[in-house]
């Protein structure tokens, strides 16, 4: 099953690459296909390097949630419909380039966060502290408390800027913001339980990294 998923992502990346290098009207969608397949494949790869004990089929994040799959489908539908009725909207190369840069920045930041955290990183919020669990505050964690979420946030919005999908840009921004606000609050309750005053001090010094999200309001 792992090989099937990896081959599927490789095939999608190859198709995207073929669309990208040509002068087809679908060139920007090719950029998107490459970005999407590379994101999911690298999620599994970095998890395998960092934390092989937590590795599973879910590490590809292909079945992240129903909402995630629905959002992806919505972006494909919007792109196709707008390409049919407003083809000039899909030919704004400078805007797609901005989106591609957002995608690259977001994915690089997320992977840097995963690599910096090492075995402390897990796709699932942990409710029990393991013996090797430490509070990571160096590297990109010195910039933001939640760099992996910051990266994913801008990556997701960037994919829609890349596709020149105005409706999904707004929808992704709102949905992602709400998801990460709730996820950060849930995670920070656990981190305060694990590390107490050490995490509260870190929280006071370093921002969450996401706009208008301060994290859980809780003091010891």
TrEMBL record:
UniProt GO BP: methylation
Entry superkingdom: Eukaryota
Catalyzed reactions per annotation: [protein]-C-terminal S-[(2E,6E)-farnesyl]-L-cysteine + S-adenosyl-L-methionine = [protein]-C-terminal S-[(2E,6E)-farnesyl]-L-cysteine methyl ester + S-adenosyl-L-homocysteine
PROSITE patterns assigned to the protein according to its UniProt record, in alphabetical order: SAM_ICMT
An example Gene Ontology molecular-function term: protein C-terminal S-isoprenylcysteine carboxyl O-methyltransferase activity
Sequence intervals crossing the membrane: 152-175
Subcellular location: Endoplasmic reticulum membrane
Enzyme Commission number: 2.1.1.100
Key words, A-Z: Endoplasmic reticulum, Membrane, Methyltransferase, S-adenosyl-L-methionine, Transferase, Transmembrane, Transmembrane helix
Main enzyme class: transferase
Gene3D superfamilies the UniProt entry points to: 1.20.120.1630
A single Gene Ontology CC term: endoplasmic reticulum membrane
Predominant location: endoplasmic reticulum
Membrane topology of this protein: Multi-pass membrane protein
UniProt record similarity statement: Belongs to the class VI-like SAM-binding methyltransferase superfamily. Isoprenylcysteine carboxyl methyltransferase family.
PANTHER family for the chain: PROTEIN-S ISOPRENYLCYSTEINE O-METHYLTRANSFERASE, PROTEIN-S-ISOPRENYLCYSTEINE O-METHYLTRANSFERASE
Function text: Catalyzes the post-translational methylation of isoprenylated C-terminal cysteine residues.
Protein name, as recorded: Protein-S-isoprenylcysteine O-methyltransferase
Source organism of this protein record: Motacilla alba (White wagtail)
Taxon lineage: Eukaryota, Metazoa, Chordata, Craniata, Vertebrata
